[in-house]
Amino acid sequence: MLRVAAEFFELPAEEKMKLYSDDPAKTMRLSTSFNVKKEKVHNWRDYLRLHCHPLPKYAPQWPSNPPETVSNYCQEIRELGFRLEDLISESLGLEKSYIRKVLGDHQQGQHMAVNFYPPCPQPELTYGLPSHTDPNALTILLQDQLVAGLQVLNDGRWVAVNPHPGALVVNVGDQIQALSNGRYMSVWHRAITNTKTARLSVSSFLCPEDDALISPAPELTRGDDGSLVAIYRGFTYAEYYKKFWSRNLDQEHCLELFKNTIE
Ligand code: OGA
Ligand code: NI
To answer: Which of 39, 54, 132, 240 would you label with 247, given CA atoms 20 to 30 Å apart?
Structure first.
């Protein structure tokens, strides 16, 4: 998968630019930064966005890199994501299929960002990606095996998540935080760049269906004194995603805007 990614970004600029678009609604596009139309500071990243499910619908849209590698990768990631969703449900004391049922059986929003971070002459002036949490349910990240760049916020300090042979990084996203009523927290993370070497990563985003109704699981909203405390109000994923893309990446946690108001 990383080799396919590298080959794509090595194509001549004219070839790649045929795929360029800054329209977030497009299911296949090459873009840059995060949300070029909204943001004031751009990020030092290019990315190829590919939707992954159902594969027969989307794979024909992809650039003509060997698609089997990418299709297989998407399929395997999907299976892994489902296993993780089941395990997270069980870890919360919920029925195994709870999260999958809430997110929807088809999870058609599954997509990936193939990220390319070119060497940056002045890395102190910007990021590859600034501090953010992912708006979806779970993100499975395949990192460049040679070049580090991912950092996560832990107890107020940025910690490097260096590549580890054969390892994937799993980020909890905002939807699992909402569903679990804050038992799982979506992780603040960012990507830094360096002056000498380009870096690649492949982010796979497992997403609820657009009409999935996300709200804290009722079993997880009982306070110690027996009172019912749902931190977040119910919302559809479509509503959340629209809000997320209407903002800059570098802002307060999008979930803050979906908190229940305490009377
Ligand atoms: C992302 C992301 C980190 C990385 O795509 O949302 O956080 O290391 N990527 O590329
Ligand atoms: Ni992210």
So the answer is: 54
DSSP string, 126-180: --SEEEE--SSSEEEEEE-SS---EEEEETTEEEE----TT--EEEE-HHHHHHT
Does 263 map to a domain?
no
| Domain presence at residue 130 | yes
Its domain, for residue 222, covers: 2-258
Q: Block means of pLDDT (10 residues each) for the chain, length 263 residues?
A: 95 95 90 85 95 94 88 97 98 98 90 97 93 96 96 97 96 98 96 96 97 96 80 96 82 91 67
C-beta 191 within 6 A of ligand 1: yes
Residue 19 lies inside a defined structural domain of this protein: yes
| CB of 193 sitting under 6 A from ligand 1 | no
The domain tally of the chain equals 1
- Which residues are near ligand 2, the ion (C-beta closer than 5 Å)? 134
Residue 114 domain flag: yes
- Strand, helix or coil for residue 204: strand
Q: Which atom of ligand 1 is nearest to the CA of 189?
A: 7
132: CATH:
2.60.120.330
